[in-house]
Amino acid sequence: QVQLVESGGGLVQAGGSLRLSCAASGRTFSRYIMGWFRQAPGKERESVARISWSGGSTNYADSVKGRFTISRNNAKNTVYLQMNSLKPEDTAVYYCAAKQNLNWDYWGQGTQVTVSS
Questions:
Q1: DSSP secondary structure string, 61-106?
Q2: Tell me, what's the pLDDT at 26?
Q3: What phi, psi does 29 have (nearest 5°)?
Q4: Nearest Cα to Cα of residue 36 among 59, 55, 13, 17
């Protein structure tokens, strides 16, 4: 069982930066692929970024490539999402999630990111 708690959301002006954190409980954090997702009002949840258990492999949505960076610290059971050059269309609730196989089995409660123009 893994429990995930996100933090770091807030209100920022366009062009600004935020860093989201996701703290995970449990001793097996390093065995999980971690991901960040977001959901804007009236839209479906979409994948933003994911990172392999070792941190050696990352993937990003086209909309955030070059602006967002996902990373993890297995010693601290934490995954991060550094968001730079933020745009109003990045406004959403951001969730972290964990999986070992096909399905994203564990989800956090989400943190709101609002980017003003």
A1: -TTTTTTEEEEEETTTTEEEEEE-S--GGG-EEEEEEEESSSS--E
A2: 78
A3: -55, -40
A4: 59
pLDDT attached to residue 71: 98
Residue spans of the chain under pLDDT 50: none
Residue 93: its pLDDT value, please?
Answer: 98
Assigned token pair, 112: 């709101």
Half-sphere exposure of 114 (CA within 13 A, CB side): 5
Count Cβ atoms below 10 Å from residue 84 Cβ, excluding itself: 14
61-82: pLDDT as tens digits: 999 999 999 999 999 999 999 9
Contact 3, 24 (CB under 8 A): yes
Q: pLDDT at position 58, please?
A: 98
Picking from 105, 5, 115, 3, the residue whose alpha carbon sits closest to that of residue 67 is 115
Amino acid in the structure at residue 7 = S
Q: Are 30 and 6 in contact (CB under 8 A)?
A: no
